[in-house]
């Protein structure tokens, strides 16, 4: 049965101080997520390593209310180069992209929750963020991602060593026990949304 897949952030092309991509690894109401650097060059990218090789069924992305990328592309890979270089695409396979609304209808006060249905196997997921939508609130031309969920099934049969490796991977990047309540997700297919927020929901296939 598809369930939420844990992940760690392998790399990002940059971030504003206090808004690292590693914030995406924790789902909690107080987490603000990732923001690109101010006046950054595009595209921006984030690479995630899932805690196990899996078949991704759905991605859920919660966009910022005004730091909105016009388009987000998705790539998947079984492995990374030995010396990982951002934007190196040889090992990644393009899955598709989604377009995000400019949020003018809500006055940039709502956050769009995008559900993207995919069917792909791998352990590394790359997100590429394109030029931001222009609005009066986004004075530094940034893009942001408040939260992301990866829903899928393990591609390999689990064993004790695989479970141990997943736990060690999370411990290595987060620096605390995997039983920390901050790591607990909500029901499968749901995001614990930062509050208060108004959310626009829509579905799309990559």
UniProtKB/TrEMBL annotation:
InterPro entries linked to this entry: CEP104-like, CEP104_N, Galactose-bd-like_sf
Domain of life according to the entry: Eukaryota
GO CC, one annotated term: cilium
Domain Centrosomal protein CEP104 N-terminal as annotated: residue spans: 33-152
Pfam families found in the cross-reference section: CEP104_N (PF21038)
Name under which the protein is recorded: Centrosomal protein 104
Source organism (scientific name): Equus asinus (Donkey)
